[in-house]
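A reminder from the course coordinator: this example appears on the midterm review sheet, so study it carefully.

Given structure:
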């Protein structure tokens, strides 16, 4: 998966990953909306009639031991994301071609907010260490629950 190495900076790589997410979402049957410009706190929205699901797309190629470290913050100086801004994070582990679809409440809810975490898309080495593996390729989670507005 060396095709990402052609990008001059992280902004270009981020745009490429957003396109990959949109293509994969379409492949899973979702209707995709893309906000104009960079002023929205989310990168992509999925359209479900009168409801949308706001998704912030992240990526990583930062290998640390047996996993990959992914950051879930807007930038180093800006304020953190809030639950009022987005519904899901889509984290792409580039070297493993793996998507993690993590509800924003998992990372932003409660007292222990997470701005970075480890993802382990390879073969697990230690049992009970891989808290976020249930979100790997969890595309059905992106659909809103029935009856919830």
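Designed residues:
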């Amino acid at each position: 998966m060396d095709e990402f190495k052609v990008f001059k900076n992280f902004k270009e790589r981020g745009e490429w990953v957003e396109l990959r997410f949109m293509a994969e979402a379409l492949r899973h049957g979702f209707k995709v909306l893309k906000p104009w410009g960079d002023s929205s706190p989310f990168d992509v929205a999925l359209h479900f009639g009168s409801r949308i699901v706001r998704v912030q797309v992240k990526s990583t190629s930062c290998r640390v031991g047996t996993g990959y470290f992914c950051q879930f913050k807007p930038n180093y100086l800006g304020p953190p994301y809030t639950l009022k801004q987005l519904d899901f994070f889509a984290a792409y582990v580039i070297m493993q071609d793996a998507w993690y679809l993590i509800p924003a409440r998992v990372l932003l809810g409660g007292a222990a907010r997470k701005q970075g975490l480890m993802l382990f898309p390879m073969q697990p080495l230690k049992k009970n260490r891989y808290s976020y593996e249930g979100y790997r390729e969890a595309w059905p989670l992106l659909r809103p629950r029935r009856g919830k507005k």
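The chain has a mean pLDDT of 87. The longest helix spans residues 10-27.
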